[in-house]
Amino acid sequence: MYDMGTFYEAKSVQEAVELRLAHPEADIIAGGTDVLVQMREGRRAGKSLISIYGIDELRGIRLEDDGTIRIGSLTSFSHITRDPLIEKYLLCLGEAVDQVGGPQIRNAGTIGGNTCNGVTSADSSSTLHAYDAVIELTGKNGIRRLPIQEFYIKAGVVDLRVEDGEIQTGILISKDSYENTNGFYIKYAMRNAMDIATLGTSVNARLSADKKTFERVRIAYGVAGPVPLRATTAEQFINGKEVTPENIEAFSKEVLNDVHARDSWRAAKDFREHIAVESAKRALIESVRRCGGEV
Amino acid sequence: MAQYQLIHFTLNGKPVEKYIDVRASLTDVLRNDFSMTSVKKGCEVGECGACNVLIDGECYNSCIYLGVWADGKNIRTLEGLLGPDGELSDIQQAFMDETAVQCGFCTPGFIMTAVEILESGKEYSEEELRKLLSGHLCRCTGYENILRAVTKVMKQRLKKS
Hints:
The structure holds two protein chains of two kinds. Chain A is built from 13 helices and 14 strands. Chain A is an alpha+beta fold. Chain A has a five-stranded antiparallel β-sheet. In chain A, strands 11-12-13-14 form a four-stranded antiparallel β-sheet. In chain A, α11 runs antiparallel to α12 (245-254). Chain A is globular. The radius of gyration of chain B is 16 Å and the shape is globular. By secondary structure, chain B is of the alpha+beta class. Chain B has five helices and five strands. In chain B, α3 packs parallel to α5. In chain B, a hairpin with a 2-residue loop joins β1 (4-11) and β2 (14-21). Chain B has helices at 26-33, 90-97, 107-119, 126-132, 144-160; strands at 4-11, 14-21, 52-55, 58-61, 74-76. At the A-B interface, α2 and α6 of A face β4 of B.
C-alpha cells in the first residue's frame, strides 16, 4: 500500500482542471514512475493525488495543419520512439527517450511527467530545449503556451499555475524547428540501462543546400546547470561558419562559456566539463552526417 | 479512512472484478486479491523488474502502477502462460533447458518481458535483445543463460511461422 491521502481520478482535461482547482494541495500523477517512487520513499508521503493517467485524449502524436508536431503529454516514451512522425522528423527525440530507465519504465513514463518534474537530467528535456519546443498548458482560463526555456523556473520547479488549475496537455515543435534539421543526443551515464544521466547533450543542425555551411546549430544540455540549458555562445559562434573539423572543434570549446557544471557524487566539475566538450563535438559531427554533410 | 473503488479487468483471459483499496499498487492487487504470486515484490520502486506484468500487451512494473488503473485493462501474468493441464509454455521450458533459473525470483518478470519480445514476431540482434531485457536484475545467473533461452525460442518461433 502507498502512503496516500485521498485519490481523485480525472477522465477528461476539463475534469482535471476542476479537480485541481478544488484540491490545490493534491499532486498530479501521470505515469507514476517518479511520483509513486517518491511516495514510497516518503518524500510525498500522505499526499493526495489527482490521476490524469486515464485521459486518453492526451495520448498520441499528430501533425497539425501548419506542420507543427504535437505530442500529447501522456504519450509514453516507448510510443514516442516507435511513432512514424517522430522517426521521420524528430529521430533524435525518439532516440533520447529510448534511453530513459529501462523498457518497463519507458512503457509507463510520459513525456509530460518528464518535463513537469523540472529535473535537469530528464532525457527528453535537453532535446526539447534544442528544438525550441513549446509547452501547452490548459487551465481555467483556457490554453497557455510558452517556450520550454520559460517553463523551467528552477530545479524541480516549472511554471505550472496551480491557482489556475493548470495541467500540461501537449508539447509542440514547429515545422521551422524540425524541417531540414537532424540531431543527435548523447547520454553519458555509468550504466547503459536504469541510470540517470551524468550529462545529456542534444545537438541539431541545418546545413546550407551545398552542405558546406552551418545555417543553424542548436545545442542544449541536461545536468550542466540546475535546469536544462542552451549553449548560446557556442551556437552564435558556429552559425554561418563553414563545415570543417576545425570549426567543430572550436565550437565544442565554446560550450564552456555556457555550461555551469558542478561537483556532485555522480561526477566532478572538471570531468563534466570534459564530457560537455567531447559530447558537443561528437553530437555535432553525427548531426552533420545525418544532414548528408561530410566532416 | 480507507477509500475503495470497484474495478473490472481481464486477468489471464478471464473477466474479473473487485473492490480495491485505492492505495494499493497493482502488485498488491494481483498478489493479495487474486493470488497471482508469480508477481514478486522486489525493490518496489520500479528498478528490479520482479513484479513485471503485461498490460494491454506492454510490460509494466506493477509495483509502480496503481491498482485502480487496471480498470478496463487486459492483464497477463506468468500464471496465464500455462496450458490447460498445467503444461509449460515454450519460453518457460527454454528457461529450464538453458538453466536460466537459479533462485527463481526474477524469473516470472523476465519471462513476461520475453513474452512481449516474442509476440512482436520480430527477429532481434543480440544487442537489441540485451537492451530489451535490461529492465530486470538477476543476481544469480549472470544473464547469459537468460539471453540464450530467449534467443532460442525467438528462433524456434520464427522458423515455425
